[in-house]
Amino acid sequence: MKPASASITCTDLTLRFPVYGVDAKSLKKALARVAVGGRLGRHSGVTDVTALQSVSLKLEAGDRLGLIGHNGSGKTTLLRALSGAYEPDEGSIEVQGRIAALLDLGLGIDPSATGYENIRLRGRIAGLTAKEIDDRMDEVAAFTGLGPFLAMPVKTYSAGMQGRLAFAAATAVECDVLLMDEWIAVGDADFQKLAHKRLLKLVERAGILVLATHEAPLLKLYSNKVKRLDGGVASEVMDIRKLDELLAA
Amino acid sequence: MDTATHMLRTGQRGTLFQLQMASRDLRNSFGRIGLAWSLAWHDVSSRYRGSILGPFWITLSMGLMTLGIGFLYANLFAIELHIFLPYVALGIVFFAVMTGTVNEGCETFVQAAGILSQTSLPMFTFVWRTVLRNLINLGHHLVIVVAVLIFYGYWRTANVPLALLGLVLMVLNASWLSMLVGIASARFRDIPQIVMSVMQFALFMSPVFWKPGRLKDYQAFLDLNPFYHLLEAVRAPLLGAPVEVGSYLFLIAMAIVGWLVTFLIFARTRRRIVHYL
Questions:
Q1: Which end of chain A is more exposed for a tag (fewer CB within 10 A), N or C?
Q2: Which tens digit of pLDDT belongs to each residue from B203-212?
C-alpha cells in the first residue's frame, strides 16, 4: 500500500513551552509557596520559552530539507512537532504519510535488552505485527552489520553501534517522512555509505527527509532545500545552492 | 514512528477541543492495545531476565509471606488456620495487584519519555501498559490463590464469575488511580514517594492481615475505606462469602467519579505532559 503522496504543511506554527526548574517540580515546595503566600521562593521556577514563532513550511514528495541554525534555535523542537509529539500552541501541522523519527538515538531503546529485542520493540512501536517483524529481521540484522553483537545487551554497545541499530530499526519500516537530528555523527565511513544509499532510496520512493544539522557539507550531500532557524524564527525555504548566501546572512 | 498516514495537529481551541482530543487519544489507544500488551510483556520478561523462575520469584516470596503471616496471625488472633490462611493469601495477592498498579503508575509517563517525545502514540497506551503488566504478574501469583482454594476445599463454594466481576471493578478503579498519579508524578517529582507511603498506610489500614468482624464500633471506618471494598469484591466470592450490595455501589460510583476526574485532568494536561518529562 502506497499513499498517494507524502507532504508536510505547517502554517504559522508557534510553539511555547514551560521549562520547569527543580523547584517547580516539587509538590511540597509548591504547597509551601501557597501556604506562605508565594513569598518563600522568589519565583516559581517555571519559565515560558517560545521555541518556534510562526513557522510556515510546505514540503512535498522528493523534498530533502536541511534545517540549520545554532544550538537552541528550534531545530529539534520543529522535528518533534513534525513527529506529532509536541502540539502547537498556534497554527497547525499537517503531515501526509507515515512518519519515522530518528531524533534521539538512545531513546525508545531499552539498554538492558538485546539488539534483536530492541529491533522488535521499535518495530512494534512503529506498528508492525510480530510476524512482519520476524519477516524483516534478517534484512535489518544484516543492515546493522552488528552480527553476533545483536544478541548482546544494547548497553554494551558503543555510540556508533547504537546509531547503526537505531538507524536500521527506524528505517526498516516503510516510512514516507523521515525526521533526523544530527544522526550522522555516529557510525563509521562504511556505515555512512550504507546509510546514504538507504536515504536516497527513501527519497526516491517519493518520501520526504527533514534533517537538522550544523554541518554545511552534510547538507550539501543530502538536501536539496534548506531552511535556517534563528531563535525560533525561520527563514524561507531556499534552494540548497543558496546555502552559502544563507549562512553568510 | 506511527502507522497513521495522516496527522493533523492544531493549536489550542478551547476546552471542548481538548476533550475531543483526549477522547481521540483514548480511542486510538484501543486500536493499539496490542502494542501496550507487547510492551507489558517486554517489561515483565526484561525485569526477570536471567533468573530461572522469572516473575515466579515474586510469587515464591509472596507464598512464603502468606505462610508466615498466616500461621503467626492465626495464632495471635486465635482463628483457625483453614479460615485465616486462605483469607490472608487472597488478601496479599490481590492487594499487591492494586499497590503495583498504583505505585508503578507513577512511572508510566516518566518511563515513556523517550517514546513520547518523538512519536504521536496515544498517551493511554502507556497507562494500559502499566495495568497489563500488573495483570500479567497477577497471572503468575494466581498459583497461590488456586493452591490455597484447592488445599482448603474452598473451590467447592467459590463463586468465580462474581470474583471476576470484582476483579473488573478493581482494575477499573486501580487504573484511573494509576493514571492520575502518573500525570501528577510527571509534573511533580516528589509524588511517587507520597504515593508509596499512602499505599503502605492503606495496606495496614485495610483488612488484609486481619478480619473486619473484630472491628465492632469502628465499622464506619471500614465502610469509607475504598481498598476494603475493592478487596472484598474479589476475595469474598472466592471464599464463598457474599458481597454487600453497598460495596458494589461504592465501587461503581468510585469508578465513574474517578474516571471522570482523571479524564478531565488528562484533557487539560495532555499536551503538556510531554513537556513535563
A1: N
A2: 988 888 888 8
| B132-169: b (≥16 Cβ within 10 Å) or e | bbbbbbbebbeebbeebbeebebeeebbeebbebbbeb
Residue pLDDT, tens place only, A19-31: 777 677 777 777 7
Domain locations along chain A = 7-11+59-248
Q: Is A5 in contact with A206 (CB distance < 8 Å)?
A: yes
pLDDT of residue B1: 38
CA–CA separation, A97 and A4 (whole Å): 9
Distance from CA of B226 to the nearest CA of A (A): 25
B34-77 confidence digits (pLDDT tens): 889 988 988 888 887 767 777 788 888 889 988 999 889 888 88
Q: What is the residue extent of each domain of chain B? A: 53-276
Tell me how many degrees the CA angle B148-B154-B156 measures, rounded to the nearest 5.
Answer: 135
User: Is-contact B115 B35, C-beta < 8 A?
Assistant: no
Check B3 against A126: CB less than 8 A apart. Answer: yes
Chain A interface, best mutation among B6, B7, B196, by max A CB count within 10 A = B7
Q: Pick from B9, B32, B114: which is nearest to A92 by CB?
A: B9
Which set of grid coordinates corresponds to residue A75?
A: 531545530
Q: Which of these CATH numbers, 3.40.50.620, 3.40.50.720, 3.40.50.300, 3.90.800.10, describes A7-11+59-248?
A: 3.40.50.300
The number of beta carbons lying within 10 Å of the beta carbon of residue B80 is 8
Alpha carbon of B173: minimum distance to chain A alpha carbons (Å): 24
* pTM for the structure as a whole: 0.87
Please say whether the dihedral angle defined by the alpha carbons of residues A235, A236, A238 and A242, taken in this order, is positive or negative: negative
